[in-house]
C-alpha cells in the first residue's frame, strides 16, 4: 500500500490545532480532561494528517503480548465457542486476549490507530460484514496483522482467514437426509453472497444432483444466521402446497427457529419433519429434540487463528492464507426415516 513519504508527528498535529503536544497525547489516550471542542478538533486533525501512533519495535520487551478478538454483533453460541478457543490458546501461550464488540467502523484509519495505541499485537476478526478496501488498507498502514474467521468475502488473496470445510459439511448433511429416504429436502442459509453460505449451498446441491433430485426454487431461502430468520423462512416453506419433509439449515440458531415454526403448525420433529443444523454449538445439544448438525471445530478454529496471528506479528511466513478445518456430521434425534413423515 502506498504511504506518505513523511510521517505526521504529535508535534505536527499539535501545531495545526494550536494546542500542546501533551493535549494531543491526552486525546489519543482517551483522557477526560480535554474540552469537547478541543477534543473534536484534535481528532479531526489526527484523521486529516493520517497520524499513526508508534508501536513497539520487534524484539522489544513488553509486559504481555495482547491480541484483540473483535466481533461485529452481540455474542451468541457460535462466537462464544470461537472466543473460548482463542482464550484457551492464549492461556497456553501466555498471551493476553481482549474481546470487543464493534457494530460499525465509520473511520477505519482511526480504528486501526486505536488498536496500535492500545498495544495490540494482532487482530482476530469475527465478522458478518464484507471486508472493505478502506479497512484492510488502514490495518496495513499501521502494520496490524489480521486473521479473519470465516469471512463473508475474501476481497484480497493475501487476507489470512480460518474456516472449515463448508462444502463437505453441506454435502454430508444432505447425504444423511437422502439416506433416510427424503427427497423433498430444502435449504435455509445465511446471506446469499457469503462465502461460507455458498459453499454449504453447493454441497447441498451437489448431493441432490448426484441422486437426480430436482430442487424447486422455493426450496432455497437466504437471510442471516439468526433464530428469527429460521422462524420466518421455516414458516414460509412449511406453508407451501408441497412442503419439504426435511430441511438443512445453515446454522444451529436458525435451525431452532425452524423447529419453532414447525411446532407452531402442529408438526412433530422428527416424525413429521427432519432438521439438520450447522455448527454444533451448545444449543444443538440442548434443543428438544437434540439437533442433528454438522460440527464446525469452532474452538480449534479460534486456537488456530490466535497462533496464526502471533506468527504474522512475529514476521514469520505462513504456509497458506486460508486454512480449512474438517467438519463432521453429528447425528442426534432431529432426523428420522422419511416413512415417519409419510405415516
UniProtKB/TrEMBL annotation:
One of its GO terms (molecular function) is transcription cis-regulatory region binding. Keywords: DNA-binding. Gene3D superfamilies: 3.40.50.2300, lambda repressor-like DNA-binding domains. The keyword Transmembrane does not apply. InterPro entries: HTH_LacI, LacI/GalR-like_sensor, Lambda_DNA-bd_dom_sf, Peripla_BP_I. PROSITE patterns: HTH_LACI_2 (PS50932). It comes from the Bacteria. The keyword DNA-binding applies. This is LacI family DNA-binding transcriptional regulator. It comes from Nonomuraea phyllanthi.
Amino acid at each position: 500500500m502506498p504511504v506518505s513519504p513523511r510521517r505526521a508527528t504529535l508535534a505536527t498535529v499539535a501545531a495545526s490545532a494550536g494546542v500542546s503536544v501533551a493535549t494531543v497525547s491526552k486525546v489519543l489516550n482517551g483522557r477526560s480532561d480535554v474540552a469537547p471542542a478541543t477534543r473534536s478538533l484534535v481528532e479531526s486533525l489526527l484523521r486529516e494528517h493520517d497520524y499513526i501512533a508508534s508501536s513497539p519495535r520487534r524484539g522489544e520487551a513488553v509486559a504481555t503480548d495482547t491480541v484483540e478478538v473483535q466481533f461485529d454483533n452481540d455474542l451468541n453460541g457460535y462466537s462464544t465457542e470461537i472466543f473460548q478457543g482463542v482464550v484457551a490458546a492464549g492461556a497456553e501461550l501466555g498471551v493476553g486476549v481482549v474481546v470487543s464488540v464493534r457494530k460499525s467502523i465509520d473511520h477505519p484509519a482511526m480504528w486501526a490507530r486505536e488498536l496500535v495505541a492500545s498495544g495490540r499485537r494482532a487482530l482476530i476478526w469475527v465478522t458478518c460484514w464484507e471486508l472493505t478496501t478502506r479497512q484492510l488498507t488502514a490495518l496495513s498502514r499501521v502494520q496490524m496483522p489480521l486473521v479473519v474467521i470465516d469471512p463473508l468475502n475474501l476481497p484480497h488473496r493475501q487476507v489470512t482467514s480460518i474456516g472449515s470445510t463448508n462444502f463437505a459439511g453441506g454435502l454430508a448433511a444432505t447425504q444423511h437426509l437422502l439416506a433416510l429416504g427424503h427427497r423433498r429436502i430444502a435449504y435455509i442459509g445465511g446471506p446469499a453472497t457469503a462465502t461460507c453460505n455458498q459453499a454449504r449451498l453447493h454441497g447441498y446441491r451437489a448431493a441432490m444432483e448426484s441422486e437426480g433430485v430436482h430442487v424447486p426454487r422455493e426450496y432455497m431461502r437466504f437471510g442471516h444466521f439468526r433464530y428469527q430468520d429460521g422462524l420466518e423462512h421455516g414458516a414460509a416453506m412449511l406453508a407451501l402446497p408441497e412442503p419439504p419433509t426435511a430441511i438443512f439449515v445453515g446454522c444451529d440458531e436458525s435451525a431452532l427457529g425452524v423447529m419453532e415454526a414447525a411446532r407452531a403448525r402442529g408438526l412433530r420433529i422428527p416424525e413429521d419433519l427432519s432438521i439438520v443444523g450447522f455448527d454444533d454449538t451448545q444449543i444443538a445439544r440442548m434443543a428438544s429434540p437434540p439437533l442433528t448438525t454438522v460440527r464446525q471445530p469452532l474452538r480449534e478454529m479460534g486456537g488456530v487463528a490466535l497462533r496464526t496471528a502471533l506468527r504474522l506479528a512475529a514476521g514469520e511466513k505462513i504456509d497458506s492464507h486460508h486454512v480449512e478445518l474438517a467438519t463432521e456430521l453429528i447425528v442426534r434425534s432431529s432426523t428420522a426415516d422419511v416413512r415417519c413423515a409419510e405415516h
